[in-house]
Every structure is written in C-alpha cells, then in structure tokens.
Amino acid sequence: MINSRPITYIYDDPSEPSPLTPAHFLIGKRLLSLPITRVSREDFTGSRPSLLKRYRHQQNLLNQFWNRWRKHYLLSLRSMNICPPSKVTCQFKVVDVVLIHDDLYPRNLWSMGKIIETYTGRDGCENMEIVSRAKWGARESKSNLTMVTPVPHIFLHHTAMRECNNFESCCQMMRTIQNFHMDDRGWDDIGYNFLIGGDGRVYMGRGWDRVGAHTYGFNRIAVAFSLMGDFSHKLPSELMLNATKSLIECAKNENHVISNYKLHGHRDAGCTECPGSAFYNLIKTWPHFEGGPIPGYKGN
Ligand SMILES: [Zn+2]
C-alpha cells in the first residue's frame, strides 16, 4: 500500500483509485509511455571520460529525485493519513500538503492543497478531554474563593503517588487524592486546579478561577496542574505530556493566564522536590519557563 492505495489494480473498475507515482506529482497523471527525448548524433560521440561524467551526473539527478520523493512526498502524505482523531496533539502546519475531502468525487480525484494559514478553534481547548468533578465523583468543596483572572503564573506539580492508566483507576485516584487533601491536610478541596491522568485525560480539580492549595505564597495568583505519578526518575508518558501542553495552550487561549505568563515547577517557589527531577529537567525547555528561586520563594 502507498498513501492508502494499493500498489496495483485489484478490481477491474475503471474508477478504482490508482497508486500515486512520481509521475502524478510531475504531470498529474500516470506516465504510460517514456518521455520523448530528442537525441542528437553528438550525444553518442565523445570521449570515455566525458561519457562517464555524463552518466554520473544523470545517476546523481536520479538519486536526488528518488530521495526527495521518498522523504518529502511519501512521508509528508503519510503523516496526514495516520493522524489520530483525538487526544494526541496533531495539528496541521503552514505549508503542509493535504488532500481536500470531496464527497462528490472518488478519492483519486480529490484536489491537493497547501495550508497557508491556520486558525485556533473558538475555545482554544481542543485535543484534550476534561473530566468534570461530577464524572470522577468529587466531594463538595468547603469554599469557593475565587482569584482575579487572568493570573500570571502556571505551576507544574507531580502527585508523588501511584500512577493510573484508565478512566476508572484515574477517577479512583482523584477521589483518593481529594480525601487525602481534605481529611489529612485539612484543606477545603483537592489542592490543584487540574490533574493529568496516565490515561491522557485532564481531571478538573478546583477549575480555572478558584484559589487552590498547591504552591505556598502563590495560590491566589497561579493555576497549578499536577501530573498523577512520581516523576523523579522517569518522564511522564507522551500522552500525559501532550495533555499538559494542551492544557497550558488552553489556559493561554481562553485567557485564564496572561499572554506572557510564567511557567514554573513547584520547586521554583519553595523547598520541595516537586515536580520530580526528571520532569523538571524537561519543563526547563518549555516556552515561558522561569526557574527558581523566583521572587516570593519560601524556604524552610
Ligand atoms: Zn507540588
């Protein structure tokens, strides 16, 4: 199979999609005959070195063509075909070549297009699923103190507890964390604004505009996202990292944080290992990161 089309004909239906060949990209259809070349008598004469040089040049051109065909055309088309519909961030970029879906015509007659501009969706929070408090079975919060939004800081944490890897186990974990925060720590609710499960879902904690209990000294001017698990010696999965990045994008696009927000790990604002060294080293490379100790840092 090439580009979801069989390499050879399977049926004898004339409208059966044909495989894409280099010729389709050069002249828009299948090449059925060799191109006409005008060969002059001089082409056959010449010394051995000049013929060799000419041969090498032609081979070189041919190799370059096949390399480009393989690396650029085939791969870029394929990456669009395997783009999964949900969860994983998979966005079209400017200059990507795409097939334009058209119900009126069979697939082999769809036109090709090049993306010249992209637009973010209205809510800016695509590519992720936010699980409501009702869905994970949250207890009622004891307070509803709200922040002045947009806030200037985002803090990343890890829960330093067990990981979860599906909807049921993550909901169970959310209830465990909430009980721990409310009953053992004596807080009003689960501490973080949002948590990210090993299943790639985002679980609503205190939400976007309620004061949390996560980063001493910054609870009224920051939102906190916590990744479920311990990331001191291992990185969170791609699924969790993508969800975290989408959540940060969402915070920015929906104006929950200021556009030049600062991103920190919990340890940048206080004496703690959180969010785990392995994860912390990664977020150092993310946009808007500011390492600590930041002004307002609380030591022991
Ligand atoms: Zn923390």
Automatic annotation (TrEMBL):
Residues forming the Peptidoglycan recognition protein family domain are 128-270
What InterPro entries does this protein map onto?
Answer: Amidase/PGRP_sf (IPR036505), Amidase_domain (IPR002502), DUF5641 (IPR040676), PGRP (IPR015510), PGRP_domain_met/bac (IPR006619)
UniProt keyword annotation of Transferase present: no
Keyword tags: Immunity, Innate immunity
List the GO biological process terms.
Answer: innate immune response; peptidoglycan catabolic process
List the Gene Ontology MF annotations in alphabetical order: N-acetylmuramoyl-L-alanine amidase activity; zinc ion binding
- UniProt domain N-acetylmuramoyl-L-alanine amidase: residue ranges: 138-276
Q: Which family does it belong to?
A: Belongs to the N-acetylmuramoyl-L-alanine amidase 2 family.
Report what the protein is called.
Peptidoglycan recognition protein 1
Q: Please name the source species.
A: Trichonephila clavata
> Which gene name does the record give?
PGLYRP1
